[in-house]
Amino acid sequence: MRIKFGDLEIGDIAKDRIKKALDKNWVTEGANAREFEEKIAKQFGYKHAIATSSGTDACIASLASLYKFGAKRGDDVIVPATTFCATANAVLAAGFIPKFVDIEIETLNINPNKIEDEITDKTIAIMPVHLMGKPAEMDTILKIAKKHNLKVIEDCCEAHGAKYKDKYVGTIGDMGAFSFYVAHVVICGEGGVVVTNDDDIADVVRSVKTHGRPTGSIYFDFQRFGLNLRMNDLTAAIGIEGMVHFEETFNKRKDNMNVLLERTKDLEEYVYFSKEEDYETISPHAFPMVLKDSRYNYSKFYKYLESKDIQCKTLFACLPTQHKAFEFLGYKYGDFPNAEYIGENGLHFGIHQYLKKEDLTYISDVLNIYFKKCEITL
Ligand SMILES: Cc1ncc(COP(=O)(O)O)c(C=O)c1O
Which of 95, 177, 255, 285 could be disulfide-bonded to 133 (CB atoms 3.0-4.6 Å)? Predict the structure, then answer.
């Protein structure tokens, strides 16, 4: 595969730290995880960064902390219909019900104007997702949350270093969950972090991620629902290296994104691209494209890119109506027209930091040729 979705080259910083951990026979959560947390907190100005074993687990730990603030089992959490399955699965795993809301095609994010229709007495939180690194419309979301006394958990798994109105995502709401899965801007392999500026939330999340033990307590004192969601010191070592190179990686990926946008700007008549507004910084997670007209033949487009050695992924498809896993919640096709449209007409591919100038030229040439051909055949 010429253009992989993401890539990882493990360098000396990580290798040294892995070796030190191995020399100490320490492979569970320890000094590396603590340092990774400190680096995240310092880089983005969060009061607390709490390491977990994955982004999914960061979502679960955030959600399960809500019991401390009055949530009951079976309560509802508002989530967007288009997102990676882990957002909704985490809601279920924490004991709540995901209430899906349609998204906006242009932003790929939850449509804030549709959230209030789904709020009931059982709603306890809104969980916006900053999909493809583009911040959700947080001002409106926070206003709704305040009016209905709801917590806001940001799913920032794809949004490392994204900013909304001069604030890094993650603590615009009450807390945020990050993933450091391979192919993300910062990588652990498997890893996550919950961030918050609230001491009480931080305390509960730390407890939830270690079987519900209160922080600093004796071994078998279980005060609340919890799981083993801890990070291990080997993956933390890789994350530390990722944070050391954060600015460099972020800027390189952002340059890649901008070069591609520039070289494909004539395709705007065919495709919705990610559009950065003045008040935001999009994190260069990947390069999403949504066909503006289904006549441009999505499956042909997808196959064409793959045949040209560009590794593609769909844009997740609508979780409640286009994935069997969520069928039991009772939604039907047609409930989420935008999410479903994106499910049938959207894809994304990687813009990782190891791509070279000639790779970007190659990708944009492939894209331009496809749409030129479309024009001729329509
Ligand atoms: C939006 C979103 N939420 C949650 C996750 C889960 O993260 P992980 O794969 O680290 O469990 C991901 C994974 O990439 C994601 O994209």
Answer: 285
